[in-house]
Amino acid sequence: MSGIVTAGLDIGSTTTKVAVLADGEVRATRLAATGANCRRTALALLSEALDEAGLAAAEVQYVVSTGYGRRIVEASDEAISEITANAVGAQWCMGAGPQVRTIIDIGGQDSKVISLDDQGHMTNFAMNDKCAAGTGRFLEVMARILEVDLEQLGSLGVRSTETLAISSLCTVFAESEVISLLAQGKAVPDIVAALHASIARRVGALARTVGVVPTVFFDGGPALNSGLKEALEQELGVALHVPPAPQTVTAVGAAVLAARRVEAGAQGAPLALTVAETA
Amino acid sequence: MPCSSEPQLACTERRAATPGVAACPPLRLPALAPFAAYAGREGLRRLRDLAVETGRKLIGTACGLVPEELLLASGALPVRLCGGEPPDPAAGLPRDICPVAAAALWPLREGLVDAALLPLSCDWKAHLADLAATEVPVLRLSLPRDAALPLAADELRRLALELADLTDVALTRGGYAEARRQVAEADEALRQLQAARAGLLAEEALLVQDSRLRADPLRWAEAVRALLVELSAQPSAPLAHAPRVLLAGSPIIYPNTKVPRLLEESGAVVAGEAFCGRSEVLLAATSAPANGDPCAEMARRLQARCACGLGGRPAGGWDAVLRSAEAFGADGVVVHVLKGCAPFHADAARLAAALRAAGRPALVLETDHGSEDVEGLRTRVETFVRMMEARKEAL
Hints:
heterodimer; A: alpha/beta; Nucleotidyltransferase, domain 5; 2 domains; 8 helices; 10 strands; B: alpha/beta; Rossmann fold; four-stranded parallel β-sheet; 16 helices
């Protein structure tokens, strides 16, 4: 990938992530709330990432977009599904480490489990996007009700001393359960632990539909939550590998796929970092 | 080429039925017009007019287990009631009703058919028969779920007598043989269509196939032959590298073409379908001769052709899917599950596992006749197509 400069745009329902790849190395990543105008957000992040990498837009040879907004960004030369990009990104992040066989990705509004064979080829996948149960949005809603920062949830959960149960899988109904537990005077750390266990059960059931084979890679924003990671490990009975930047794995995968396209002879359109006002 | 005046009704209806999913597909080939004319609700009303003109009873059906030749031999005109239209909100039906049963209700309520012949092949079909009985006379067909052919033949004999009472046409051996010949001619046309389907978009192929029980079999076969002539004159550009996909599971019925459309938009080719008896028709080398006991022969054929696992062969129906995947050179199989079809939902994961064990990637898609889930389906379909592409490259 020497001499190749590419970008990956992962436009998720909650967060947009961008990765710039040059000479086979990730030179910069950026992320921000997707907001109302995902095109503008993606291009602003790409511009920032290129500045950090010391690269000009004209040097970018190919851009691959992924995520729910993948098909509406003009700067993209190719749109691929986030599942494909995630599988590539996870293996890229593991580098010379053990072969990833299972990927668990919890996103803002869906969760996915990907199964790979011992050669790294995708063999199966499962995706749950019927509702926000078992997703980052579920945690966001609950953090708001508990009046704690999202980032605090992981450390709060490990301080739990009483086992509570959140039985509802529906975000709205679970919200009612949490309010009820608060009204009963239950401790916030115990409620947080119960929420983690609830998500772990949901994601664990999804994972079992494709099978869980180590090495298991865990990414997406909620992978930063140590309490959720621990709950998932207990649910699945395996250790989870969380990369240093789990939110940008899929964007990196998109950039890697873009570089492979360039290696195969593809040429992207000139990159323009502006958005039409009508967009 | 814009829609011609006749099929435009059906296309307009389709656009309204699935907003945001499918624009009216231009009829690329004039020879598709006869099939489009019999699609949708307008097509069914045309068949009602034909029945009135020819003095035949129009009998609605809703399953691949219907003995079409028996209806034809009894002087009736069979018409498939089930379609791919979303349920009519005005009907006041619950959301999770079987979409096929829901789509079959409106022509009964509008009195478009004189009677209905409904195999009791699943709980919903049985309940559909009860609902239909409040609108029109209903003939129920209860074929045994195992290989008890004598019992099945007896049931068909009982049905033949019931039909004769309804139509006032006595069933004769000659009449049955002629009806069998007509069905065999249509089956042969379907086989020829399958051999030439590379020239058709998946939704065009569905349109043609699903009009099979919306038209007289001989007229349908004639229209297929005209289409084949037109296809043979078209420049052929086979997509040699595109993954080939077999559709299996709950029936995908025109105009619900979102899954095959998404597959094609993602770069795959729909190689064929394995539901509602199509596989057995397509895989059979020749049609069975109409000699011996007609009812025994009919029973044998109906039990052999059911690939859905609900009507005749609870697990053995998968054989047809596996054989179809092999015969059609499928790189992967989409197992389509209609919401509300609980038995198929329960079977889908095991069927997918059986396919994977046989070396074919499989994707289970649970959906309905609506358009709300298209983007969620697109992510899965695109991933599945890329997975098959990577697998082909690796091989």
